[in-house]
Amino acid sequence: MKANRSIQRELTRWIILIASILIVTGSVVSSIIVFEEAKELQDSLLHEIAMLVRKGYVIGNINKLENKESDDVSILIQPVNPVSSSSDTLSLPTPLVDGLQTLTLDGESWRLLLVTQLSTGKRYVVAQQTEIRNDLALASGLNVFIPLLILMVIMLLLIKWQIKNQFKPLNRLSKQLHQQNSQQPELLSQKDLPMEIVPFVISINTLLNRIGKTLKKQQRFIADAAHELRTPVTALSLQAENVEKYLNEEDHLQRQGQLQKGLIRLRSLLNQLLDLAHLQSDQQHPKSPVSFKDIVLRVIADFHPLAENAKVDLGVLKLEDVQVLDQDGKLIQLVRNAIDNAIRYTPANGKIDVSLLIMNGMAVFCVEDTGNGIADEDLTQVFQPFYRSQGNTQPGNGLGLAISQEIAQRLGGEISLRNRPEGGLVFTYSQAQSY
User: Fold this and answer.
1) What is the structure's pLDDT at 204?
2) Are 334 and 425 in contact, with CB atoms under 8 Å apart?
3) Highest mean pLDDT of the ranges 157-166, 213-222, 304-313
4) pLDDT for position 232
5) Coil, strand, or helix at residue 283?
6) How far is CA 3 from CA 6, 13, 177, in A?
7) For 268-317, how does the pLDDT look when each residue is reduced to its tens digit (9 = 90+)?
8) Domains of the chain as residue ranges with CATH
């Protein structure tokens, strides 16, 4: 498996590479400039000496300004046409014009400056060996190049150390995440973090916060589910034992009927628990547009016999044709829960009005009943799993509204409950249209 690319290593590598190229290039250019300037400086020295000769301050056939035994640069001053020749004189070609020039004399390269003395009219040459000139210029260039190279090495080491030091907060965050308790994740500290990392840490903390809430929700769900299942399972065990203790055939059938009803309630509870667990999972399926009106009409048709049996007037105020997004048929379950709760909590001779409207680009599904409503302090609590408001005597598990709330969140909609002034409850679900 290919190893992941290291940002720290890549950043260090590129900075060192770019810095090295720039510094070496700058050092070479600086050394070349110093090399050329050193040669120009020596030319200036020849001009200054030539000026002294021209004004007659230096007199004689041959004068050497440097120590003869020295291996350093020698500057020779001699007449163009010396009276006598020696090992210290240069054999000059003729004719020569006044000015600066480079010639090869006696097998060596010389830099010459010819000048005519004002007082005598004699011509003199001021000469310097080119090799010695170049050695001096090269030494000057190296004196610039070598310190820059040393500074470059020191700078690159400091860059590497600083980059490693700047990545320490990331290593610390990684260690904190690695040591997190999977059951109780803690938020990461934002103290002493670079400003570029803070948004990343905030996003992680937001995720950890959601994970923590989900874990608490699941833990509470498991505890509540175990508590809710304990009662019907215990009741079923007792009913199963009582079946064998019947007095006569009629009593036997009655006890069997009670046992079957208990099994039906338990199966309903288990189905609701599975639905809620499935909705609370992270499974995401694609959404598709559906006709909200067709769903409402289908559910009303299914529940109409139940409403007639309960002597409840189930009617429709207004149904507008609107398209919304649905996922795995969850919307029909939400509508069924809303109408089923309205029928169960509306007394005989009561009334239920269903409507579907389009308001501000939203599909608004509304179910109004003439029941007893819900206590104001319970309007938000009833969405919690297994929560049942005080005074509720209707059979149920307290999961219907919790399931509906999970469906609404999954579909991007919103549920609200409010009591009617004249009595009863209004269930409202709104969701954006699908164009």
Assistant:
1) 81
2) no
3) 304-313
4) 66
5) coil
6) 9, 17, 21
7) 667 766 666 666 665 666 889 999 999 999 999 999 999 999 899 999 99
8) 7-80+93-162 (no CATH), 198-280 (1.10.287.130), 288-432 (3.30.565.10)
